[in-house]
């Protein structure tokens, strides 16, 4: 059973990304897809990026703990909002903090917005930086338009059946990539 990490990328007060991150945490547990850990960047409150972890003289325990959780995860799900066509600085900050830890890590992307496009404009720029650091970006995406109407603050979808159908297709692709990576590493 894979160990999965779900990153809630927004650090805004009352952010809506957390709703979708909580949904996936529950979905993964209820469907026994693996063990799952929620990494909420709002709770970490990392300082602005100064240097990659490998070049830091005295990294904080918080940075080391986060790094360990990324290393231990077989796959990562990044749940990010779209702010003015881009992803939040908090996500770029944590991506830049690490490097080798992202290499060939299967990363799935879920995007959220309060508008009707579901954060789809952020996907290309996020994919590009993840490819640049040699992460394995899962080809399936999970955009969520009008997130405040689609999920309550605890992560419960308003259309549970429809959302779970979409989530199954999305997580199946992510889990396939995780399994493929494991098989490739055995050879």
Automatic annotation (TrEMBL):
<dbReference type="InterPro" id="IPR050712">
    <property type="entry name" value="NAD(P)H-dep_reductase"/>
</dbReference>
<dbReference type="GO" id="GO:0010181">
    <property type="term" value="F:FMN binding"/>
</dbReference>
<dbReference type="InterPro" id="IPR005025">
    <property type="entry name" value="FMN_Rdtase-like_dom"/>
</dbReference>
<dbReference type="InterPro" id="IPR029039">
    <property type="entry name" value="Flavoprotein-like_sf"/>
</dbReference>
<dbReference type="GO" id="GO:0016491">
    <property type="term" value="F:oxidoreductase activity"/>
</dbReference>
<dbReference type="GO" id="GO:0005829">
    <property type="term" value="C:cytosol"/>
</dbReference>
<protein>
    <submittedName>
        <fullName>Putative reductase</fullName>
    </submittedName>
</protein>
<dbReference type="Pfam" id="PF03358">
    <property type="entry name" value="FMN_red"/>
</dbReference>
<feature type="domain" description="NADPH-dependent FMN reductase-like">
    <location>
        <begin position="4"/>
        <end position="146"/>
    </location>
</feature>
